[in-house]
Design a protein that fits this description.
The protein is built from 16 helices and 17 strands. It is of the alpha+beta class and about 450 residues long. Strand 4 and strand 5 form a beta hairpin. Bound molecules: flavin-adenine dinucleotide (FAD).
Length: about 450
């Protein structure tokens, strides 16, 4: 066991078993986790540097932790590691109204940044459903997406620059604060989505936009089948003026949400499609008319449109409640595949077929406009054979997505959960190039080892 005394001289080191257990895993039910040697709750860049210098000197693994809301086991401890929790580094250091950027520490919660930006008439668009509970550092490390990303892009589109502590404890600064800048290699976007395998994000400069107009129209279509809802999503998303949100919930999900929220959702529909536009009122109304026609022609049995903000918000609250609602029904194993839009209806049908083949319940919801689906396999608590079947269904869904030209993860990351499947998406030479980058930045391979498909 490594000697912690040198580290204890620099930072507070936690070894209490109950506290260690509480920081040893994220929200991915199936991903395994180990027993850490210790944890450190960093409050400064110097703390992070001290941990990394000590870890390098003692060749000890470090698992970086933000808010722990990840769904891929990315923040899960491994035996003998240090859990480096950066959630207490949570200050918003600057909001620049004229240059439209924010400078933040990594532990700032996504919603807190957006609320602070709003006070200046500005907006931080990336909006994972976990926006109230997930950290900017975690969002950057996973390149989080969300509901409005179909129109406004994902986290990487908003990261201008980063402060990163490398494995040896050195601090680097990437990117810029100006609107444009191409000096040097684009290291910023190498770290975005790297899931803590290349460095610890200790600061970020993020692009902000002007706050959106209040205008907003919502169209909700009830379809007999998920495939029909998927086909309508293809048409709406592929239109000249696409939606600002385009979400799908299948019948299993709608029923779970209705049981959870009791808001009078159509529980007989095969699927609900939610299309939102946020442009000025007149334009929104015209688009809503068009989408209603698309839904009806696509077989929708019921379509309603509203521009009442309370109704719009209620429907998106229902959509955001999808995962918590399904989780209430049992042990939930969540997928995160993304397929080309043209294959969306086929993928939705395939998921239903896989559920039948493995005799498991799957509730599918997700960002239909991006082709990004979250089939969630729910099994009764304590039913081991059902969990085995869920695991088999999980793998079949991944392979089906890959066979359709899709990817293993659209936004949650690979973490430990899908580590072994990366080989099916990325060829050996490309993985070797990634391993070389990993070793250049982390020669001892101590940062978040055993995840993201990296062997080093
Ligand atoms: C109810 C619910 C809804 C969700 N909805 C969405 C959604 O719509 N879209 C979406 O993309 N995700 C969603 N998620 C997943 C999750 O919230 C995101 O992956 C989020 O970005 C994780 O942030 P976190 O702070 O919790 O990170 P953690 O879970 O703590 O860590 C995630 C990964 O990032 C690494 N990491 C964390 N902080 C740092 C740092 N400072 N430097 C380097 N590496 C770091 C960790 O090592 C780990 O690999 C949802 C989760 C839940 C529970």
């Amino acid at each position: 066991m490594s000697d912690l005394s040198a580290l204890q001289a620099e930072v507070e080191v936690i070894t209490d078993i109950d506290v260690l257990e509480s920081v040893s895993r994220d929200q991915a039910a199936l991903a395994l986790h180990g027993r850490p040697l210790a944890a450190v709750r960093a409050t400064s860049v110097a703390d992070v540097q001290a941990v990394m210098r000590w870890a390098t000197a003692h060749t000890t693994s470090v698992v970086v932790r933000g808010a722990g809301t990840g769904l891929a086991g990315g923040a899960n401890a491994i035996d003998g590691c240090i859990v480096l929790d950066v959630s207490r580094m949570n200050s918003i250091l600057e909001i620049n109204q004229y240059e439209r950027y924010a400078v933040v520490e990594p532990g700032v919660l996504n919603a807190d940044l957006d609320r602070a930006a709003a006070q200046h008439g500005l907006w931080y668009p990336p909006d994972p459903s976990s926006w109230e509970i997930s950290s900017i550092g975690g969002n950057i490390a996973t390149n989080a997406g969300g509901l409005c990303c179909v129109k406004y892009g994902v986290t990487s589109d908003y990261v201008l620059g980063l402060d990163v502590v490398l494995a040896d404890g050195s601090l680097i600064h990437t990117g810029r604060r100006t609107a444009k800048g191409v000096t040097g290699l684009d290291l910023t976007h190498l770290f975005v989505g790297s899931e803590g395998t290349l460095g610890v994000v200790v600061g970020a400069t993020l692009r902000l936009r002007s706050r959106r107009s209040a205008g907003s129209a919502l169209v909700v279509g009830s379809f007999p089948t998920v495939a029909q809802a998927g086909a309508a999503a293809m048409v709406i998303s592929g239109g000249v003026r696409g939606p600002s949100m385009l979400e799908i919930m299948d019948r299993t999900t709608v029923r779970a949400v209705e049981a959870h929220l009791r808001m009078g959702l159509d529980t007989e529909a095969g699927a609900l499609l939610l299309a939102r536009d946020d442009s000025a009122h007149a334009e929104s109304a015209a688009l809503a008319d068009l989408w209603q026609v698309v839904c009806k022609e696509g077989g929708a049995t019921e379509v309603f449109a509203t521009s009442q903000s309370d109704e719009v918000e209620a429907m998106f609250a229902a959509r955001r409640a999808a995962y918590p609602a399904l989780e209430k029904a049992g042990h939930a194993l969540l997928e995160d595949l993304c397929v080309p839009l043209g294959r969306l209806p086929e993928m939705l049908e395939r998921i239903d077929a896989i559920a039948a083949e493995h005799s498991v319940m799957i509730g599918t919801f997700g960002h239909a406009g991006d082709g990004n689906l979250h089939p969630t396999i729910v099994t009764p608590h304590g039913d081991e054979p059902a969990r085995e079947r869920a695991r088999a269904a999980f793998e079949d869904i991944m392979h089906a997505a890959l066979a359709m030209g899709g990817v293993l993860s659209g936004e949650h990351g690979i973490g430990t959960l899908k580590h072994e499947f990366v080989q099916y998406e990325i060829d050996a030479s490309t993985m070797q190039a990634q391993e070389r980058i990993k070793r250049a930045l982390d020669p001892l391979c101590i940062l978040n080892p055993g995840r993201k498909g990296l062997h080093s």
